Amino acid sequence: MKKYNTIVVVVLLSNVLTALGQGPSTAQLQQWNKAHFPTHVEQFLHYLSLPNVSSDAKGIATNVNYIAQQLQAANLEVSKIDFRGVPYIYAEKTVVGTAPTVLFYVQLDAQPVVPTAWAQKNPFVPVIKRKTDAEFVASTLKNALQNPKDHYVFARASSDSKGPAFSLITALQLLHLKGISLPYNIKIIGDFQEELGSPTIPEFVAKNRELLAADAIVILDGTRHSSNQPTLTYGARGIATLQLIYHGANTNLHSGQYGNIIPNPVFEMGRLLGNMKDERGRVLIPDFYKGIRFTPNALDYFKGLPESFESLSTQLGSKMVEEVAAFPQQSFHYPSLNVRGMQAGWTGAQVRTIIPNQVVVEMDLRLVPETPGKQQIDRVLAFIAAQGFTLLDHPPIEAERLAHKKIMEWHSRLGSIPFRTPIEHPLGAWLEKGIENGLGPIPVVKASTTGGSQPIGAFINALQRPAIAVRIPNPNNNIHGPNENLCLQNLKEGIGSCLGILTLPFYE
Questions:
Q1: Contact of 386 with 282, CB cutoff 8 Å
Q2: Global pTM?
Q3: Does the pLDDT at position 59 exceed 90?
Q4: Cβ–Cβ under 8 Å, residues 151 and 144
Q5: Domain 25-236+420-502 in CATH: superfamily?
Q6: For residues 178-217, b (16+ Cβ closer than 10 Å) or e, as one string?
Q7: Nearest alpha carbon to residue 362 among 376, 347, 343, 345
Q8: What CA–CA distance (Å, rounded) separates 125 from 332?
Q9: How far apart are CA 287 and CA 475, in angstroms?
């Protein structure tokens, strides 16, 4: 009975301090995080076992129900919203009436998996490993809890983006358990189509401005800076995609029968792609970088970040570094052009002596505020046309095949739009202080933008409020690829960061 009396006293004292405007101390938050971390890791392992690939309707439905239950356990009001056939989770907690409101965005879906490419049987059965100097070796939960800094959990979505979502929800549950009232109102929007480009987000946000209205937007998604220090990211690049199909003959041809007679479309596509970039990695398409400029202060900021191309080269095991910008972070202020996949004929055990009838190239274009998606797509298509290609937005018919030598079929899609919150915005100072409130004195990297894309531009445009991302996962996490992982120390610091942010009064 004495144990339960102590708990009651702690809860009552916490409520008194909250009423006086004094939230829990950093030492209290750290102690709570440490004491409950073993339970939190077990809960996280269960969450990772729930498949959440965007295209898996059954798996997504399971995740919708799970997240709703977890938010309800944190004493939030939760709604499941179906918009154009796409599920969203919305939750809110009004604790101080007319006080400020913060909207938290969390990504809740994941990229597809190829199980045979993973070093474990099932990417949705999490595996704990210890990092040695040379490799990752199997370990146990007990060992992981004793030394989370060198232990990682391997599973799809562990970093992108169950770890960040779990950190926020777990922090809310822990504060509810301790009887701590939040110093501001919160709203949470959960996105189950981020890996598909969040195509319904712009319309959803536009039609729900009142529901989502807030004073600031905090994003729980994305990887930390390469230094693995706690990171705030003030922007993200947008994305557009382009599919190119270069057509050769109307069917695959025997390479002996037709070699030296009918050209192989792979070589022509190779010449085209090679003309798009120089050896330094700079895009040669006219005006591709038009409008990109940097002030002396911006250049000083890039130079002062704890990063270098040399350290990234060592980390990634490649001496090849593109020279688009003078500094790594500055590179993200330029638009990019990437070949994300190419297909022609067959390889490996399926290889055949044929001349492929077509070659398909899938491209993505990362965008910055100075380079809108449609403009960049138009510039790429104009460049292709200038190389002598006939552009078609449909498969060529026989008459078109016979009328034109070089036929390029193309299809494009515009995805997330870019955004960039000023690095000096007070929202960033508040979040930095919140992280320190939860973790104690610790360096926080302020990254002006990330190279990836997030669907936050739609929120900023509709709500006219600033947005900044709190980054939690380790940078060496293999997101989107096989063997995705999350360092357990990052999970612990993620929960601690959220505890500190959720208990710090909002800036005025």
A1: no
A2: 0.87
A3: yes
A4: yes
A5: Zn peptidases (3.40.630.10)
A6: bbbbbbbbbbbbbbbbbbebbbbbbebbeebeeebebbbb
A7: 343
A8: 34
A9: 32
Q: Which residues belong to CATH 3.40.630.10 in the chain?
A: 25-236+420-502
The C-alpha R_g of the chain, in whole angstroms, comes to 25
The residue whose two tokens read 């562990």 is: 158
Task: Answer yes or no: is pLDDT of 10 > 50.
Answer: no
Alpha-carbon dihedral sign for residues 188, 193, 199, 203: negative
Is residue 245 within 8 A of residue 410, CB to CB? The reply is: yes
Q: Which DSSP string corresponds to 241-300?
A: EEEEEEE-SSS-EEHHHHTTTS--HHHHHHHHHHHHB-TTS-B-STTTTTT----HHHHH
Q: 46 is written with which tokens?
A: 């269960």
Q: Specify the domain boundaries for CATH 3.30.70.360 within the chain.
A: 238-292+334-414
Fold classified for 238-292+334-414: Alpha-Beta Plaits (3.30.70)
Whether residue 21 has pLDDT greater than 90: no
31 Rama class: left (phi>0) / alpha (psi -120 to 50) / beta:
alpha
Q: Which tokens sit at 267?
A: 């070589």
Q: Which two tokens stand for residue 13?
A: 């004292």
